[in-house]
Amino acid sequence: MRSRQHSARHPQRRLPPYSHELAARLRQPKNFSRYAGTSANGRNPQLWCGIGPRVWDWAQRFFDRRLLTLLPPGDDPEIFDWRLLAGNDPLFVVACGPVEQSEIRALVAAMMRDGTKKILVGGDSRITVYERET
């Protein structure tokens, strides 16, 4: 089991799972093209965040092919520091199993609090777009 990592700037907030791996990958832009969703020129990475009861299975299945993090089932997204995702818009959130709209809205709000400006949420064969008001 992984130990819980806390944010250096916000010690009361934890880092979401896979943050250290994601940060290391983002420091190597020459490798972006190997990850799903990255722009054709390999310059703009696509970041993913999973949510839902099957999120750990999703993360294990796609870890090698996606730049990802996740919200553990049952955790409040407000307790996490999502700033690592900021500046890589749009972020794609994947529903991994049944997820209540209130859970998605809470995750989107926490990510936008920490700087993400545009989030695409996929599930039920549709995509919902959330944009931060400026």
Ordered list of secondary-structure elements with their pairings:
Layout: H1 19-26, E1 47-51, H2 55-62, E2 67-71, E3 91-95, H3 101-113, E4 118-123, E5 126-131
Parallel strand pairs: 1-2, 1-3, 3-4
Antiparallel strand pairs: 4-5
Describe the structure.
- The chain is of the alpha/beta class.
- It has one domain (19-35, 42-131): Cobalt-precorrin-4 Transmethylase, domain 1 (3-Layer(aba) Sandwich).
- Helices cover 22% and strands 20% of the residues.
- It has helices spanning 19-26, 55-62, 101-113, and strands at 47-51, 67-71, 91-95, 118-123, 126-131.
- It has a 5-stranded mixed beta sheet, sandwiched between helices.
- Strand 3 (91-95), helix 3 and strand 4 form a beta-alpha-beta unit.
- The mean pLDDT is 91.
So what's the oligomer here?
single chain
What low-confidence regions span 5 or more consecutive residues with pLDDT below 50? none
What is the straight-line distance between the termini? 40 Å
Cross-sheet strand order for the largest sheet: 2-1-3-4-5
Based on Cα principal axes, name the global outline. Answer: globular
Q: Which structural class fits the helix and strand makeup?
A: alpha/beta
> What is the CATH architecture term?
3-Layer(aba) Sandwich
CATH fold name, please? Cobalt-precorrin-4 Transmethylase, domain 1
Q: Return the average pLDDT rounded to an integer.
A: 91
What is the makeup of the main sheet? 5 strands, mixed
Provide the domain count.
1
Rg (C-alpha, Å): 14 Å
CATH class: Alpha Beta
| Helical residues, percent | 10-25%
Order of helices and strands: HEHEEHEE
- Discrete helix count: 3
Strand content: 15-25%
Count of extended strands = 5
